[in-house]
């Protein structure tokens, strides 16, 4: 059984409870982060914490992350669960208060918890065969740049992908791709440029996306942050997604059409290896 962290304590997972009045539960009034762990160490810790603080600020959740020794606490969570490879989920809600659309009074303590999930990140069989995806309209709310727990639409679209016999779903506005259900979407154009959606309220600023842009630029690849359509992605040389849990994952089919030769792209796999190297070099 896992040991989890909740509101200042480490407890067995079945002893961790939140109130039925928690606003995370009643209003999805909570933000979160997913950190990946490799060789027992967190990848891109600082960028994840920065995004968490930004999410809290944008939601006006009054919680001071600097009052907690997060590096020490997450290291303890990793150690107590003997986690070498997997993810850590960390959630902060506005806390518990009698149900009211209006926010509770200042000083209501946030509900804070974190837990580990052991899983193979480097040797993921999907990296060998590539992901097949479908596209669906992006009907999420308009502040996708904030990492809230309001994930129902993404969850429903993953179920549609599963029902369609594919691996996941890219979300589109008109025919322009925003991002994957839980990853950022990227393509390699026929002339070798890496294209990924520009930042704004329409997508989550992925930490993996950010690291990968640096890695790509450092290796001489031109990166364009701009909108791209389904047709451009289908006609691209290669396609892939980025996320904390998938790293760089090739996409080989979009809405039934093969991307490139229908196999994981050469540049994509080189970027995946470079990202894993970047991850291992930390700590
Ligand atoms: N998802 N876009 C969305 C909508 C996401 O939910 C995620 C992450 C990303 C990629 O961000 P990052 O590279 O920082 O993981 C993009 C996480 C993994 C999740 O919810 O499980």
Shape category: globular
| Total helical elements | 8
The name of the CATH architecture of the largest domain is Alpha-Beta Barrel
Please estimate the helix content. Answer: 25-40%
Radius of gyration: 19 Å
The number of distinct structural domains comes to 2
Alpha-carbon distance between the termini?
27 Å
Assigned CATH superfamily of the largest domain? D-amino Acid Aminotransferase, subunit A, domain 2
Look up the CATH topology of the largest domain.
Answer: D-amino Acid Aminotransferase, Chain A, domain 2
Q: What class, by secondary structure content?
A: alpha+beta
Order of helices and strands: EEHEEHHEEHEHEEEEHEHEEEH
Bound molecules: N-(5'-phosphopyridoxyl)-D-alanine
Oligomer: single chain
Largest sheet geometry: 9 strands, mixed
Structure description:
The chain is globular, with a radius of gyration of 19 Å. The longest helix is centred in the C-terminal third of the chain and has 15 residues. The protein contains 8 helices and 15 strands. It is of the alpha+beta class and 283 residues long. The strands form 2 sheets. Strands 7, 8, 9, 10, 11, 12, 13, 14 and 15 form a 9-stranded mixed sheet that branches. Strands 2-1-6-5-3-4 form a 6-stranded antiparallel sheet. A hairpin with a 2-residue loop joins strand 8 and strand 9. Helix 6 crosses helix 8. The two termini are 27 Å apart. The structure holds N-(5'-phosphopyridoxyl)-D-alanine. N-(5'-phosphopyridoxyl)-D-alanine binds next to helix 6 and strand 13.
């Amino acid at each position: 059984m896992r040991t989890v962290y909740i509101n200042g304590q480490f407890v067995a997972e079945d002893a961790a409870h939140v109130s039925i009045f928690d606003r995370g539960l009643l209003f999805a009034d909570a933000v979160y982060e997913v950190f990946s762990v490799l060789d027992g160490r967190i990848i891109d810790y600082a960028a994840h914490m920065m995004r968490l603080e930004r999410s809290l600020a944008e939601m006006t959740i009054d919680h001071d992350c600097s009052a907690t020794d997060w590096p020490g606490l997450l290291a303890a969570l990793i150690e107590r669960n003997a986690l070498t490879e997997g993810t850590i989920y960390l959630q902060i809600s506005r806390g518990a208060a009698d149900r009211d659309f209006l926010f509770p009074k200042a000083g209501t303590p946030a509900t804070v918890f974190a837990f580990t999930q052991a899983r193979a990140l480097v040797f993921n069989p999907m990296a060998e065969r590539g992901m097949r995806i479908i596209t669906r309209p992006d009907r999420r709310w308009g502040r996708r740049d904030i990492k809230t727990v309001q994930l129902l639409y993404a969850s429903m679209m993953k179920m549609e992908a599963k029902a369609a016999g594919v691996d996941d779903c890219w979300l589109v506005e008109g025919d322009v791709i925003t991002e994957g259900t839980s990853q950022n979407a990227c393509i390699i154009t026929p002339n070798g440029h890496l294209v990924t959606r520009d930042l704004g309220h329409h997508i989550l600023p992925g930490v993996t996306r950010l690291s990968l842009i640096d890695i790509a630029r450092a290796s001489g690849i031109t990166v364009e942050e701009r909108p791209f359509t389904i047709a451009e992605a289908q006609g691209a040389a290669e396609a892939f997604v980025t996320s904390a849990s998938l790293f760089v994952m090739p996409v080989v089919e979009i809405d039934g059409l093969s991307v490139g030769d229908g196999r994981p792209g050469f540049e994509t796999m080189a970027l995946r290896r470079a990202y894993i190297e970047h991850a291992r070099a930390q700590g």
